Amino acid sequence: MSFLAPLYLALASAIAVPLLIHLMRRRIGMRVDFPAARYLARAEREHSRTLRIRNLLLMLLRVLAILALAIAAARPVARFIGAGHAPTAIALVVDNSMSAGVVVNGRALLDQFKGMARDVVGGATSTDRIWLVTIDGRVRGGNAATIRDAIDGLEPLAGAGDPSAALARAASVVRASGLDARQIALVTDGQRTEWQRVTPPADVQLLVHSPSQGPPANRAVTLAEARPVRWTPRGAVAARFLSRDSTTYRITLNGRTFARGTAAPNEEIVVRAEPPERGWVAGTVELEPDELAGDNVRHFAAWIGAAPGVSLAPGVGTFARSAVDVLRSSSRIADGGDIAIATADELTRLPALITAPTDPVRLGAANRALEKANVPWRFGPRRSGETPLRGPLLDNVTVTDRYDLVAQPGATAETLAVVGRDAWAVAGPGYVLAASPFIPDATTLPVRAPFVPWLGSVLTERLVGEPGQVIEAAPGAQLARPRWADAMQTAEGARTTLTETVDVPTRAGTYFLTRGDRRVGAVVVNPSPDESQLDRFTPAELRAQLGGNKTLVADSPGDWIAMAFRAAARRSLVQPALILALLMLILEAGAIGVRARRAA
Amino acid sequence: MESARALRADLFDPASLAALGRIEIVARWIVDGFMSGLHRSPRKGFSVEFAEYRAYQSGDDPRYVDWKIAARSDRWVVRQYEEETNLRSTIVLDVSKSMDWSGARLQSSRDASGADRLTKLAYAERLAAALSLLLLRQRDAVGLVRFDDRIRSAVPPRARHGQWRRVVSALEEPGAGKASSAPDALERAARLISRRGMIVLISDLLMDMPDVERAMRGLRAAGHDVTVLHVMDPAERELPSTGEALFVDPETDLSVPASIGDVRAAYRNTVDEVLAEWRAMFGSLGVAYEIVSTDAPFGVPLRRAFALRQQLP
Q: A242 - beta bridge partners?
């Protein structure tokens, strides 16, 4: 017999009340003069045996009634002798998240889970239906042999998976089985970050086991990022590590080690480099192997190319010229004709960063130049008044003088910044168009700190090379297809044509996005840093966390295996316990009634 | 008839009646009521001598109405007779501490009727006074012995004028010692009656039965007629229905913790057994035995005691 809510067994301590009443009933404080006390003493002497037996019986009835109520509150279930098990639909949910790959005592935790799952499959009969559900929500059905093969083939995922989806799908398949006895048997490492927001299904019995011992210490790479994503060709890699003490790391680019070092726990390191590679490249930040291998490597991607040559038209003003000098001195850009920075009336070619004309009388010339360069935007009416500018890298910037940006038919552009509800800066193929000139009379942008980073971002990320970017994704996730890519490529070169959605691979790594034959971006797949936090719920905490109406928590693997398939064989004893309590109370009332009638 | 009963003091509630006056007055009322309620002549079959006339009262036996006077003067009078008797009687009254107790306190929370109940001693004193007066009116000699652990007072039996006053004065003396010692008192009473007579023991009999039996046996051997009026409070026969307490005998300090609900039935059985034992013991010795409850009107025990008296010569 086991209990679905064993904490309620504490109510059994209430049996102390009738026991104390029974034991202390002779410690009476009230004193009464009664001359016929000799008759009373004689009555007690002559009837003491009867009185003692009756009081003992009353106490036993009360104790039994309280015990039965406490047991009923704890919701007991038990297997009746010879009951076997009825045909059962059981979904084995095996937690194969990255954290389950941790090695304990020389054996991966997932291997232990697989062994347990195989034992449960071994206990299935031909009338049972059984499914294997992995923590990413994948469902595999079939006969026992098929399920056993699927269990053998399980590998740790590169991430946390989706426990809620896994339980929901497990519940869904057992519900659809048509069998009355349904059970989800979950074996997991009970990782806090994985289970803290999971709600178990309310209508299917959930049998859970998690290890009671704590996890081993873990070291992990929790951050690996190219800064900026486009290196020209200088750039940096930022990394952070989870560790109890200092740890050594290695950074690679296209498989080549270009940095090694030692980092303190939770310290963010930034390693600068100017590698010889060009184009989209994959990199890793790696640690020495430990008990959990899945988080010892973290991937990143970067585009590396020569600094673009930038030319300035005379009318853009001194502030833009000074900012370009700063960018040039840091080697992010160079002199050249790759990109032009010009007021619209001076525009002669693309790609270009185009600003509004400084002189309003040049508005017509500006619009004609835009038309000539096939830029699908025109300057509209002039607007004055100080208004905050909103957009990435544009904090604390205001605009006092601007023109409406009027889209022409067929214009497809990305809005980079807005003033109120109007676009202030838009980006399209080969151009970035700003609604104000870069002078302090029109906007505070040229005299604010964000100007140089914003200008660098526009020149090196928007206007140079391909418009691709890096997409960070969790293993097994689904993404909307980026418009600028048509296929995904592994590091080994295998290509997958993209549909409307992108199924992110379950293995961590860098997967390049291509358009035609050219790489235009990358999907970088890494586990969530939370998955490296191996802290576990204790079985009691997991019971509280998954404390649905039908949740059973097995304390040991043997119990978990033994309790599987018992959704049918294990009957609830709540009703019998309540009936027993009621019977005890009726008998107690009867005994009191007999005494009262005799007394009357 | 109902109004006649209502006017008779011997049928009043004892506590209510006792509240109306002193022992002497109450006893007179009781005896007057009692006498007026005798529908049949208590003197029937005895040697009687005419004493006086008195006005007819409701309840008087019509056989004693003097019809000649009624015919002549249109007044109804009854003839009263004097008994010729030489009976000497002694009332032996237990004034021990156990007698000075009323169960009203035990029952007051549950039974409003028990709130004003007389103690056993107060009831017994009024009963003794009334009985004395009744006997004196029959020209019997009446004496009184009060005892607890020793003899508290003794009034030798006399039939002369003023005897009742002496009896009443003795009843008003303080008593209520510790334990009861009935054998000594009964022996003393026997010595006060030089020849065969009647002894009335009024007690709650919370004493050892062998001692009482030994004393009774001696009295009977001396030829005395003995009547025992066993005074009991209703709470001594029927415990209150609920509650727990430490019950302490004020005489012996015997303490018994008990849950009344548990022992109530057993206690009642035990009391019945004890009463049966007393009855059997007194019956075997030829001693008249009556149980008197302190919530019963005085007329009830008086009638029983008087009936016993009438059986004597």
A: A220
Query: Do B64 and B206 fall into the same domain?
Result: no
When pLDDT is averaged across residues B237-242 and rounded to a whole number, the result is 72
- Chain B residues within an 8 Å CB radius of A50: 266
Chain A stretch 344-383, residues whose beta carbon is closer than 8 A to a beta carbon of chain B: none
Per-residue pLDDT tens digits for A92-117? 999 998 888 888 888 889 999 999 99
- Higher-pLDDT residue of B35 and A528 is A528
Task: Identify the closest residue of chain A to B270 by CA–CA distance.
Answer: A43
Q: Which residues of B touch A51 (CB under 8 A)?
A: 262-263, 266
Cβ–Cβ below 8 Å for B244 and A51: no
Domain extent, residue B288, equals 88-310
Q: What is the pLDDT of residue B43?
A: 42
Closest-CA distance, B131 to chain A, in angstroms, reads: 26
Domain A88-215+536-564 architecture: 3-Layer(aba) Sandwich (3.40)
B265: which chain A residues are within 8 Å (Cβ-Cβ)?
A: 595, 598-599
Residue A548, pLDDT > 80, answer no
pLDDT at residue B46, rounded to an integer: 33
What is the pLDDT at residue A50?
A: 75
Could you give the number of structural domains in chain B? 2
Tell me the β-bridge partners of B50: B81
User: Which 3 state secondary structure label does DSSP give A180?
Assistant: coil
Say if residue B297 is preceded by a cis peptide, omega within 30 of 0: no
Q: Does B163 fall in a domain?
A: yes
DSSP β-ladder status, A470-473 and A518-525: parallel
What's the pLDDT score for residue B215? Answer: 86
Q: Would you state the pLDDT for residue B81?
A: 66
d(CA A305, CA A233): 5
* Residue B12 belongs to a domain: no
Distance set, CA A314 to CA A340, A357, A451 (Å): 11, 11, 19
CA distance A24 to B188: 49
Same domain, B126 and B229: yes
Rounded to the nearest integer, the mean pLDDT of chain A is: 85
Fold adopted by A220-306+468-530: Immunoglobulin-like (2.60.40)
Residues B217 and B78 in one domain: no
Predicted-complex ipTM score: 0.75
What is A9-27 written as a DSSP string?
Answer: GGGGGGGHHHHHHHHHTT-
Q: Could A37 and B236 be called an inter-chain contact, meaning their C-beta atoms sit closer than 8 Å?
A: no
For residue B21, the model assigns a pLDDT of 66
- Structure confidence at residue B50 as a pLDDT band (50, 70, 90): low
**Per the domain annotation, does B149 fall within a domain?**
yes
> Which residues of B fall within a CB distance of 8 Å from A33?
101, 248, 250
Q: How far is CA B258 from the centre of its chain?
A: 32
Residue B156 shares a structural domain with residue B58:
no
What's the rounded Cα separation, in Å, for the pair B144 and B287? 19
**Do the domains A220-306+468-530 and A88-215+536-564 match in fold?**
no
CB within 8 Å of A102: residues ≥ 6 apart: A108, A109, A189, A215, A216, A218, A291, A292, A534
E strands present in A337-469:
339-343, 352-355, 377-390, 397-407, 414-419, 422-428, 431-434
Whole-angstrom distance, CA of residue A372 vs CA of residue A366: 10
Q: Parse chain A into domains and list their residue ranges.
A: 2-80+574-599, 88-215+536-564, 220-306+468-530, 309-316+335-456
